[in-house]
Design goal:
There is one protein chain. By secondary structure, this protein is mainly β. Helices cover 9% and strands 40% of the residues. Strands 58, 61, 62, 65, 66, 68, 70 and 71 form an eight-stranded mixed beta sheet that branches. Strands 85, 86, 88, 89, 90 and 93 form a six-stranded antiparallel beta sheet that branches. It is flat, with a radius of gyration of 66 Å.
Length: 1469
């Protein structure tokens, strides 16, 4: 057992070490140090032991006491998760005290490394070293030892204590069942319940309960096994064989553990549901032999006890199921059948069956009912009528009865005695009784009444039935009244006839007949008589009709009757007209006959036409229906075609009744078709459109067959063809010029046919069939151009000649013949060369035109476009120099260099490619293979023909950044898009890309969007409606970028149409309270936001002031705009961490490698430079800044980008919308906004990179090219000061000098005075009473090591400027000594320029008394040998004694070349 515990402890220690893997390295290191320390301690202990031996031999002072345990650690048991406190108190402590865990030293520190939950609490002075373990876990279960080391003759002491961490069970379950679940098991079936108590320390005990009583079975299996480290799982199995007594019994498994509270036991419970068959059913509510009465309510209850599931109970009656609805309560089932006893329930057997899933056969219980009932009725059968003296048989039968019923007779009020009866069993239950008697009909009685009684003597119930026999007598003959024979009845009037019969038993039945046909009547009966009345609406059928009334009853064998005959006058009902012959044709005679129907008296006939009577002939009469007369009248006519449709009317009138009938006939005259004349015999249509030609005919019969033909070809009738006929309509779905012609339409019917011709004319637009080829004439000759046109219609007016910018009335004339127009040009000259346009337009279709080139021979002319006079190539590459010329005849090209013809195609060095661009333009391309430095320069292109030659210089330069586009135009404007197009400039020898910037006219922020590859057009979307936008464009290649064009291209987006008023939403019904509530909430929200923003700014300002005060060696905090995402618009977020990172943005020291962007990747396509109040750029008047200056070249330089300053100046410059100046130093402020000096933002390096330099003019005489300045454009020098006074820039000095006031709109500057903003709006101040206009759109003077900066002192002297060499990118004649040479040359130039500046200042008397540090731009008069029309700038933005100065321009010693400086937008700096 001890070995097993030691093995378990060893395993637990290994698991503990595995759990402490994150601290192994530290522990190893600590262990190593501890071993070294223990090594020295051992040596010290040996020395101490020797000392003890020595001291032991010496006398011991009485006051020396050995260290000992005042409180010895004792074994401790603690609950997992609780706090364990191992106490250890040492008296007279002298040595070091530490705790160990299973032999592992925890160290001498109060905070034990690697054991965050362990700590040593106490006080060394008091000798208290208690080990506290927080949130104790199983891993803390170990043997601990408090160790006190030896010291000062005190031996080491130790005390052991064991910490036992107990942990309650994690869970308890009965395997396979959830808590309080039901366990269904069959009777006597084996069942095993397995209880599992998991993860307890120590192992838990399991107690079983049956119900609330502890259950201790004989067979029970318990096991304990270690589930995890130091945690044990206990399992207990219980085997049962449940019976019915175990049904509903609960078995509970309970865990007992010392970590569990007795008040809250851990249990798992299941409830057994034992399936067993039910008990036998039994019936309540009826006992055997009990008698029931019919109508009595019977309730039979069937019950069964026991059984799981409860028994299913079903009622059967005579073997048929009658009820299966039952209810259960616990283990009791009950089925109650309630019914009303009927006769059929007598002798009926009612059975109840009980069963469940455990029943092999249903259990049964049954009863047989006995029901007593009287007969429900009796029935008397016999005749209902009889004559006096007849013997009538009668029979009485009862309904079923139990017991059998008796019958009693009453005839005429007297009881019949000794009547016989018989009883039989009824199939419906009970018995029926039958009795037969006879009765004699006595005279003087109208009826004989017979009564039959049926009696159930046991139930004393009696039923009665009565039978009446009528005695028969015959009635008297009927009488008719209401009409006298011979009386006239007009048709349509109402006549009533009444028939009356009296006497008889029963009363007579009266029936009316009309000509032997029975008709309905209204019968009225009295005591001794009966009447029948009929109402007649007289009509033709009633004339001479016989009406008869018959009377009869049971006593009459033959009915009695009386009749009368009516006389009725009636008018003719119909008139019929006959035409002989039936088919009428023009030219024949027709007889029209009118026949009138029967009339009484005879009718009078007459003919009418259009209200006019016509005399008829052959008026005859003959007898008709209903005793009337039929009349006939006719007339004759000669038939014509015009009679078709004429109407004739016949009238038949009964004059006695003043009534008549009419009939009309329309003559149907058959004739062949006849066309209705159309408006025109010509139909005109346009080619490509549809056309319908419709014709109408008159004919009888109307079904007319149409047939369309053209040139003998029949037009199809179906609509699948392009040309088809539809009856009298001819349809052309799409006209073609070949469809023109004469179309014949034939119309026919059964009587004949007719034909009509229609001419179809197809008009089509003009097309130019042919034109004369390019006409070449000598100067002074006449020229004729021809243009052949086809069209319909086509006249001379339909063909015109035109040419843009050419007066056609001076030298030209036209003639026209046979569809050809001729243009005659007299005395052709050079200015007549060009395309003459032949325009054909007959207004049927769109005009067509063709250009005819007139060539008048002329000497070659070489194109002088900037893109064609310059070429660029890198060293070692192939250079291509274009030369494009116009001339006739074709010019020959000759290439020269230094006045010598080049050896074309004779060496590999030079090749020429020629191509024809158009009829007048030719291009020769000189290819220079493997360009060397000596190949750069000017080449001459000579174009020569028989009329002369032209010479032009084409320069080959090194590849550089491109020139700006030549122009920018607006192509299209919508409500939210603008399409722009630009004319590209020189591409610098590399593929150029383009970037468009735009902004709203009233805003100052620009957005940028890159153009599509190989496209000079761009559509800009996402714009606001009804907003004016300004656009400009720049170009860039892999070496650099050009400047932007001025913001002269503008476009205003359109607006959308307003919605109709009925479509707009009516918000007038919004409750006022809702509006007020929302407004108040919004106002409160704004107040809270304003307070937070104000607090933030105050806090930031205080923080910056504190940083500036505490860190004088650091640059001030830079407030800048930072993009909120990779490609989002720039926000006003303040970054305060740039000052600490400023070193990463500078290029100080020569040790830093040069950064070259060799593969510029495309950045985000759209940029937004957002300044708080950035004013729009403003440009000089038209003409002051031309794009190209062929005759007015001014050398322009830019301020190079500070990131590429490789000098020793301590200024780290960068482009940003805001600068802070502290202690005379420019503060760099890296920003994602595009800087104005032509650099671009590189996403990979997260900084700005400048482009390679452009070539400088030769007049500057630079041995080496300075820094790139490609983003600046040349400009003329403009006087910037008036009245001899200086123009002051910067809000720090204007007020001091001018004494006026001005507004400088830009971003917020915190703690900065006198700093010019990147873009300055129009600023005006007054100096000496005269207004002075400030420079507009001035970008910040980011003075770097390549910028000349001078500072005026009070005595006007200029300090000597020091220069540092600007950093040069790779790729341009890499020379290791280049930087040194340039540095020497620039220092010499700066000294010379400084002398010139001093001389100029002294000579012109420029006032230099401005305060130190104010920026001045001085207009210097021209000097013969020095600086001419130059600008001098001074500023207080830095301390000139602390910062090195360098030139921002240079002047040739040969002299007089003006040098000006512009920013990225071409503004003067």
């Amino acid at each position: 057992m001890a070995l097993q515990q030691q093995h378990q402890r060893h395993q637990q220690h290994q698991q503990h070490q595995q759990q402490q893997q994150p601290h192994i390295k530290w522990q190893q290191h600590a262990t190593k140090r501890r071993r070294i320390r223990q090594h020295w301690i051992k040596h010290l202990q040996l020395l101490g032991l020797l000392a003890v031996i020595v001291l032991a031999s010496a006398p011991v002072p009485s006051h020396a006491q050995q260290q000992k345990f005042r409180t010895t650690p004792h074994d401790l048991q603690v609950l997992e998760g609780a706090e364990a406190m191992m106490r250890c108190e040492v008296a007279n402590v002298a040595g070091a005290v530490q705790w160990t865990k299973d032999g592992f030293a925890l160290g001498f520190s109060a905070v034990i490394p690697g054991f965050p939950r362990y700590s040593v609490l106490g006080d060394r002075k008091q000798g208290i070293y208690n080990l506290r373990i927080s949130n104790a876990s199983i891993n803390d279960d170990a043997d601990y030892q408090c160790q006190v080391g030896p010291a000062r003759l005190n031996s080491a002491i130790r005390a052991n204590a064991k910490l036992t961490v107990i942990s309650p069970p994690a869970s308890i379950e009965i395997k396979g069942y959830s808590h309080n679940s039901k366990v269904e098991v069959r009777e006597n079936q084996d069942l095993q319940l397995k209880c599992i108590v998991a993860n307890a320390k120590p192992a838990a005990q399991i107690v079983w309960y049956r119900g609330n009583v502890e259950y201790k079975p004989e067979k029970r299996e318990d096991t304990v096994e270690e589930s995890t480290s130091k945690r044990f799982t206990t399992t207990s199995s219980l085997k049962l064989k449940p019976g019915p007594d175990d049904d509903y019994t609960e078995y509970t498994c309970q865990a007992r553990h010392k970590a569990l509270s007795p008040d809250m036991p851990m249990r798992a419970t299941v409830q057994l549901s034992v399936l067993y068959p039910p008990g036998p059913p039994y019936i309540e509510g009826y006992s055997a032999g009990e008698t029931l009465r019919r109508g009595q309510t019977v309730e039979l209850m069937c019950r069964s006890r026991g059984g799981n599931p409860p028994a299913q109970l079903i009622w059967y009656k005579n073997g048929s199921q009658i009820r299966m609805a039952y209810r259960t309560s616990g283990r009791l089932s009950e089925n109650i059948y309630t019914f009303t006893a009927e006769a059929g329930d007598n002798k009926a057997r009612f059975r109840c069956e009980a069963s469940n899933v455990m029943s092999q056969n249903p259990l049964k219980a049954e009863v047989e009912l006995s029901v007593l009932f009287a007969p429900t009725h009796v029935t008397v059968m016999g005749p209902t009528e009889a004559l006096v003296g007849d013997i009538v048989p009668l029979t009485c039968t009862t309904a079923p009865s139990n017991p059998p019923a008796e019958i009693k007779w009453m005839v005429g009020g007297r009881q019949v005695r000794n009547a016989t009866s018989k009883t039989i069993v009824s199939p419906e239950g009970g018995w029926t009784t039958t009795s037969n008697i006879t009765a004699v009909v006595e005279p003087n009685k109208r009826s004989l009444v017979v009564i039959c009684h049926g009696l159930n003597m046991q139930l004393t119930e009696n039923v009665v039935s009565t039978h009446t026999i009528n005695v028969l007598y015959p009635p008297a003959p009927p009488l008719i009244s209401g009409y006298m024979e011979g009386q006239i009845i007009p048709a349509g009037s109402v006549q009533k006839l009444l028939c009356v019969s009296s006497g008889g038993n029963p009363l007579a039945t009266l029936t009316w007949y009309k000509n032997d046909k029975r008709i309905n009547s209204v019968i009225r009966a009295a005591d001794k008589s009966v009447s029948a009345e009929i109402t007649i609406l007289a009509n033709v059928s009633d004339n001479q009709a016989q009406y008869r009334c018959e009377a009869s009853n049971s006593a009459t064998e033959i009915p009695l009757f009386q009749s009368t005959t009516l006389s009725v006058h009636f008018a003719p009902e119909t008139v019929k007209i006959r035409i002989e012959p039936k088919e009428l044709r023009p030219g024949m005679e027709a007889t029209i006959i009118c026949d009138s129907s029967s009339s009484n008296p005879p009718a009078k006939l007459s003919w009418w036409k259009d209200g006019i009577p016509i005399e008829g002939i052959n008026n005859t009469s003959k007898p008709g229906l209903w005793g009337g007369t039929v009349s006939t009248l006719e007339f004759r006519v000669n038939v014509t075609q015009e009679m078709n449709g004429q109407v004739y009317t016949c009238q038949s009138a009964n004059e006695a009744l003043q009534r008549s009938a009419h009939e009309a006939v329309s003559l149907d005259v058959l004739y062949r078709p006849k066309f209705v004349p159309p408006p025109s015999s010509t139909a005109v249509g346009v080619e490509g459109e549809s056309l319908q030609v419709s014709l109408q005919t008159r004919a009888n019969p109307t079904p007319v067959t149409y047939k369309w033909t053209k040139d003998g070809t029949t037009t199809p009738q179906d609509g699948d063809h392009r040309i088809f006929a539809d009856g009298g309509s001819l349809n052309f779905t799409r006209l073609h010029r070949d469809d023109a012609g004469i179309y014949s339409c034939s119309a026919s019917n059964s009587q004949g046919g007719a034909t009509l011709n229609i001419t179809v004319v197809v008009e089509y637009g003009t097309t130019i069939k042919s034109v004369s080829e390019n006409i070449v004439v000598n100067p002074g000759e006449d020229a004729m151009l021809s243009c052949t046109v086809e069209g319909k219609p086509l006249t001379e007016e339909h063909v015109k000649w035109e040419r843009v910018g050419y007066d056609m009335t001076v030298k030209t004339s036209t003639t026209f013949a046979n569809g050809t127009s001729y243009l005659h040009i007299k005395d052709a000259k050079r200015e007549d060369v060009g395309n003459f346009r032949c325009v054909a337009d007959n207004r049927v279709d769109n005009p067509t035109n063709r250009d005819i080139l007139l060539i008048v021979k002329f000497a070659p002319e070489i194109a002088k476009a900037p893109t064609l006079l310059r070429a660029a190539s890198g060293t070692g590459e192939r250079g291509r120099l274009p030369c494009r010329a116009q001339g006739s005849p074709k010019p020959q090209f000759i290439w020269r260099q230094d006045k010598k013809d080049l050896p074309i195609n004779r060496t590999y060095k030079y090749e020429v490619e020629e191509r024809k661009i158009d009829s007048l333009t030719y291009e020769s391309t000189l290819i220079v293979d493997k360009v060397a430095p000596a190949d750069y320069g000017a080449y001459e292109c000579v174009a020569r023909n028989e009329l002369g030659e032209a010479v032009e210089t084409v320069r080959l330069e090194i590849t550089s950044q491109p020139d700006p586009p030549l122009s920018l135009n607006i192509l299209n404007v919508t409500h939210d898009t603008v399409t722009v197009a630009w004319t590209p400039g020189f591409d610098g020898g590399l593929k150029a890309s383009y970037r468009v910037r735009y902004r709203m006219a009233d805003r100052e922020q620009y957005k940028y969007i890159d153009g599509l590859p190989n496209s000079h057009k761009l559509t800009i979307g996402g714009l606001r409606m009804n907003t004016l936008y300004l656009f400009s464009v720049m170009s860039w290649n892999e070496l650099g970028q050009s400047t932007y064009l001025p913001d002269l291209a503008r476009a205003e987006t359109k607006g959308l149409e307003l919605m109709p008023a009925e479509l707009t939403e009516d918000s007038s019904n919004t409750p006022n309270l809702v509006i007020i509530g929302i407004s108040l909430a919004a106002f409160g929200f704004l107040l809270v936001n304003a307070s937070l923003v104000a607090w933030f700014f105050v806090h930031q300002r205080r923080k910056k002031v504190a940083e500036t005060t505490n860190q004088p060696a650091k640059t001030a905090t830079i407030e800048m705009y930072a993009p909120s995402s990779y490609n989002d618009t720039v926000t006003g977020e303040t970054l305060s961490s740039v000052s600490e990172k400023s070193e990463s943005y500078s290029n100080e020291g020569s040790s830093q490698p040069e950064y070259i962007d060799e593969a510029r990747k495309k950045a985000a396509s759209t940029y937004l430079v957002e300044g708080s109040d950035m004013p729009p750029p403003r440009y000089q008047k038209d003409g002051t800044l031309p794009v190209i200056y062929p005759n007015n070249v001014v050398n322009a330089c830019t301020l190079p980008h500070p990131r590429h300053n490789n000098g020793s100046a301590a200024i780290h410059m960068t482009r940003d919308d805001q600068m802070l100046i502290s202690k005379g130093v420019y503060i760099p402020s890296p920003s994602p906004a595009p800087p104005p000096d032509g650099s671009y933002y590189n996403m990979n390096s997260d900084r700005y990179l400048s482009y390679p330099p452009m070539e400088y003019p030769a007049a500057l005489d630079f041995t080496a090219q300075p820094m790139p300045m490609a983003h600046l454009q040349p400009m003329t020098v403009t006087s910037l000061a008036t009245n001899g006074g200086p123009t002051l820039i910067g809000n720090g000095s204007v007020a001091a000098v001018a004494g006026g006031s001005g507004t400088l709109r830009r971003g917020i500057l915190r703690g900065v005075v006198g700093v010019p903003q990147p873009d300055v709006t129009h600023h005006t101040s007054t100096v000496g009473g005269s207004p002075m206009q400030m420079m507009h759109d001035l970008h910040p003077v980011n003075l770097s090591a390549s910028t000349l900066t001078t500072s005026t002192t009070l005595n006007g002297s200029l300090p000597t400027a020091t220069a540092t060499l600007p950093r040069q990118p790779h790729g341009i004649l890499k020379d290791p000594n280049r930087n040194k040479q340039q540095q020497q040359q620039q220092q010499q130039q700066l000294q010379h320029q400084q002398q010139l500046l001093n001389a100029s200042l002294v000579g012109v008397g420029v006032p230099v008394s401005a305060p130190l540090g104010s920026l001045q731009i001085l207009n210097l008069p021209p000097a013969s040998g020095g600086l001419g029309n130059n600008l001098l700038m001074t500023t207080n933005a830095f301390d000139p004694t602390a910062v090195g100065l360098s030139s921002f321009g240079a002047v040739s010693q040969a002299g007089g070349i003006p040098v000006a400086y512009t920013d990225a937008d071409g503004h003067l700096v």
